[in-house]
Specification:
Strand order of the largest sheet: 12-13-14-15-30-24-23-18-21
Structural class: mainly beta
Radius of gyration: 19 Å
CATH topology: Beta-galactosidase, Chain A, domain 5
Length: 350
């Protein structure tokens, strides 16, 4: 196992120092986070025989994250993760226009967003790193000054915990998501078709041909979106289904069964070849499953070239385009309120 070198992340970008922060627990698990984009660079977890492997796609150096064409690998997406249809929304009677950066839509906070800025590290220990960012009023077209923090904690229970906190001085739109590309057999090891998912969601939100939600909330029953019992990712991904054709595979939000604001079990992912299991718990109402449909020969770690569907993303968040769908859980953050969001990745084997 070759660990990513901290020296390769020491740089200065836009006048701020970038670094790599390595967290280790008593069982030998390792998580590495950079303050550029608050990106999860690596997560090393054991297989059923105790051999560690890095299970997230990414790059070996900070320059590759900054200068490459990274599709949000490992990054915190915001101020509003996922899509806002046609890059427009109204808030308290005023219409706002955002960058169009994904077909006809706004995606993951815009041209820069939270994923391409340097966060300030305010606390770092062997098991925890806390980062803060001030998103200024009208940054990327969003109203309000927003103070946001994300804390990564690697626990001795083999959990990587993400705790988000934010507050604003004006009503705004706010929805964060972590965008790691997982392959439980090890990053760059090939297709994830044989890896299994179980998603605790009886409903999903279908999309139009631009991948923006239609506003419908449909049952997963008797569809390729039924992961109510464990199913191979590849089992139905290429079936004759209009939704899968719109996304070129899975790129859809699942409506989680638990009550929003309470920590609930969202997903279990399992790789039969290595025995690695990843359980995801979240306080958010949705999880976006993305099957890396648009990755095409992307440069990766150790000279690897990442290919289509060699990873999957499970982004816990609010539903896409919720600001334009009043019946979706709200993404409006008002002064005096706190945005709080917890996501836990728990690692085991079987």
């Amino acid at each position: 196992m070759k660990k990513i070198q901290e020296e390769s992340f020491k740089s200065v970008y836009q006048g701020k120092q970038t670094d790599l922060y390595t967290l280790v627990n008593r069982n030998g698990l390792i998580a590495q986070i950079t303050n550029y984009g608050a990106i999860i660079v690596s997560i090393y977890v054991p297989d059923r025989n105790g051999s560690l492997a890095d299970i997230v796609q990414g790059y070996d150096t900070i320059s590759e994250y900054i200068n490459g064409n990274s599709p949000y690998m490992g990054a915190i997406c915001g101020r509003c993760a996922n899509r806002i249809a046609k890059g427009k929304f109204s808030l308290n009677g005023k219409e706002y226009s955002l960058a169009i950066n994904n077909g006809p839509n706004h995606l993951h906070g815009g041209i820069t967003g939270f994923s391409k800025v340097v966060w300030n590290v305010v606390r770092f220990t062997s098991s925890c790193v806390e980062m803060e960012y001030l998103s200024q009023d009208m940054e990327e077209g969003y109203p309000g000054n927003v103070n946001v923090s994300v804390t990564y904690t690697l626990t001795d229970a083999d959990e990587l915990r993400l705790d988000y906190l934010a507050a604003t001085d004006r009503p705004t739109v706010f929805n964060l998501a972590s965008h790691s590309y997982f392959n439980l057999a090890g990053e760059g090891s090939g297709s994830v078709y044989d890896q299994e998912l179980a998603i605790n969601a009886a409903f999903y939100t279908p999309v139009d041909n631009s991948s923006a939600p239609t506003g419908e909330i449909l049952s997963v029953r008797n569809t390729p979106f039924d992961f109510s019992t464990p199913k191979r990712i590849g089992e139905a991904i290429d079936s004759d289904n209009e939704q899968l054709k719109f996304g070129a595979g899975y790129d859809h939000n699942f409506v989680l069964d638990h009550r929003t604001g309470t920590l609930g079990h969202a997903v279990t992912a399992y790789d039969p070849s290595s025995g690695r299991v990843m359980e995801i718990y979240t306080t958010q109402p949705g999880v976006q499953l993305y099957s890396a449909n648009w990755i095409n020969n992307e440069p990766g770690k150790g000279g690897k070239r990442y290919q289509r569907r060699w990873a999957f993303c499970l982004e816990t968040q609010h539903f896409a385009d919720a600001i334009n769908k009043p019946h979706f859980p709200t993404v409006i953050l008002n002064p005096g309120e706190k945005y709080e969001h917890t996501c836990i990745h728990k690692f085991t084997t079987k």
